[in-house]
Amino acid sequence: MEAPFIVIIASGSEITAGRSLDTNSGWMANELFELGWKVKKFITLPDDPDLILLELQTLKRLAETRPVLVLMTGGLGPTEDDYTLETVLKLSGKKSYSVEKAKIRLTRIYESRGKQYSDILPTVIRQTHVPEDTKTLDNSVGIAVGFVEPIGVDSYLVCMPGVPSEMKEMFTRRLVPELKRIYPRENLVQKTKWLWNIGESLYQKDFVETHRDRLFQDVEWGVTANRGYIKCIFQSTDSKKLEAIISELETQYSKIISDDVFSFVHEELLSKNLTIAVGESCTGGLLGKKLTDSPGSSSYFIGGFLTYSNEMKEALLSVPGEMIESFGAVSKEVASAMVEGIYQKTNARYCISITGIAGPGGGSDEKPVGTVWIGLKTPDGSIETHSYIFPGNRESIRENASNTALFLLYQSLKQRKI
Amino acid sequence: MEAPFIVIIASGSEITAGRSLDTNSGWMANELFELGWKVKKFITLPDDPDLILLELQTLKRLAETRPVLVLMTGGLGPTEDDYTLETVLKLSGKKSYSVEKAKIRLTRIYESRGKQYSDILPTVIRQTHVPEDTKTLDNSVGIAVGFVEPIGVDSYLVCMPGVPSEMKEMFTRRLVPELKRIYPRENLVQKTKWLWNIGESLYQKDFVETHRDRLFQDVEWGVTANRGYIKCIFQSTDSKKLEAIISELETQYSKIISDDVFSFVHEELLSKNLTIAVGESCTGGLLGKKLTDSPGSSSYFIGGFLTYSNEMKEALLSVPGEMIESFGAVSKEVASAMVEGIYQKTNARYCISITGIAGPGGGSDEKPVGTVWIGLKTPDGSIETHSYIFPGNRESIRENASNTALFLLYQSLKQRKI
């Protein structure tokens, strides 16, 4: 079977008015990419039934010439401006019916709040409706039922709720197995590695171009730029080819390569009963925030110090005033004194300090905007310091600095492990 | 003249693969909304010249029936997969030429790096090219020149770079004046107010529905949900009508209404030479991060304490252990003791503490997940505490808590001002 022409539609006037960002389409495209499917087009439409119908009619006509898969989110809610079901019924000329299982679930939810079926508004009941002769997709998070409507030979229109948590659960648990059944294909393997503080174009030139002929046959690759790191993605049906690439990548970039730093740091600190504390200047709390993003972080994150001013570096972390005077607040010496101060106050096994110039002001020829010193005290008592000049604006420099601090922690945890 | 049918196109395979999020389209739609224009459709396409051409041909055909305005970003860069210029030349049957001004600018940039014109790669020079007979849009941030290509009666295809900083500058400085000239229209006035910790649907029912007949004639309204607050947007050509709505809104929601809290807090702390320090438990640094997002925040943000563990609440902020024992770490008493401790250690004029249960674990019947106490010590020495039960997941609760803390600060600063 020919691979389907995949189109993702997001409906919602709040998106086309620029008041809300559609993250569903990108999320689905990424999931599909990992399954080996490439999306050909995203479309976003306001809650306008005429425009939606016009678009679906165009796609249905396209399905007369080749397999088409349309994934649409939004418009299945209980408000006036939810038009998806109505539009699909117009498109297909079908009638709708209420899915018994969903109706029972809805009734139970109302009963648990001390209400009964007759209290439920018709627009809420409408959410349990789907067109006749469709494959239904259960919603285990919310109310609205999803469905897969045939629109041609090997062609389908999938309608799902726009609430991300409902859509994601439905996509992963209900839709993906269905898609694998409808469009059977070879299993694609994917590998991802992160490289730190290196540009996308330099990586392409030094790695992809250099090894293209030898390593990249039948391998798809992609790269995405993030704050402080790039993600290198490789896909193939041949896992040996991927292994060869990863091995070459690990040799060439041994000092700056990592897996997912955020999840590794979390898992490792948690499972090894380690503790950590931080002292932040230019990042103002961003490192602490990142270290406490995951549930369970209270097991390892003890606390920290936001020593934004020089006075606070002295008062809270006992950094000598003369040291700040002589070397400047953004210096190897101060980064080192900060971690020592954090350790004295918290006794945490790992201590991290960050001091830098986030800009836009405060830079000099000697220490330009973006200059950041990071200090790390490890459980063996040793202190290491690293300096960087991060590119970009204030936000970018702060993100770079806190992510890179986590990468240094990752490297230390990784060495411990070996 | 009939209002144009506006379509925004973003091109980029990294977007349709889900590796990068298109924020350009939403940004432009929002800017256009404030100018009184509504966007009918967003389209995102991979870097595939055939798909792009097909789409532009379809839109050019639509322009035979009505005015169409297409705003396209991306594909003007110097790499192999930048196809915008080539595609537009195919669409129009025109030739391109190099814009003299842009070529001079490019040469100067190369000369400043000690290189000469002959060093510039042809693909880089291509960025200075535009189709003949178009209105050019100067790029004062990067290299690639934008242009406005006529595609029918009162219909235009605008091509701009995909780099957000280049596009935004070009859009605001070059394109908007051009659009106002091409599509003259009445001046639209817009007012925005924020309401805190109230649901979108409750606001719609209690305010919009209640006053619809009396206040909303010839007024467009919108509402967007954010973390801790909703933004209420009103537009009209009649500024008196907007004033009547704002006045009603301020009366009905006097305790929870605000303007942009983030910019007000920044401006006010800065201009009044005030200082602030924080102590954060469940937010782990997020409040400090938000208070230091803006350049210049070092003038008022002294520092803070990330007292994530109970031990650190005692050690760093002198919260009595028996108090934590008796009332729990998430309590009015501890929030109050925390701000007092922050003040003792920093002498900041404003001190804010946050202690709460961000979840998903740690909740109880008495204190469910989402329970947060916020303490605020003001320059007159008084301490106020507020409790909330914030909805949503861990991330949402942490965002809600830190934003609401800034709202409390806003209210206190506002009262001082009066």
UniProtKB/TrEMBL annotation, chains A, B:
The keyword DNA-binding does not apply. Residues 7-182 form the MoaB/Mog domain. GO terms for molecular function: hydrolase activity. InterPro entries: CinA, CinA-like_C, CinA_C, Competence-induced_CinA, MoaB/Mog-like_dom_sf, MoaB/Mog_dom. It comes from the Bacteria. The keyword Hydrolase applies. CDD domains: cinA. Gene3D superfamilies: CinA-like, MoaB/Mog-like domain. It holds the Pfam family CinA. Keywords: Hydrolase. NCBIfam families: PncC_domain. Belongs to the CinA family. This is CinA-like protein.
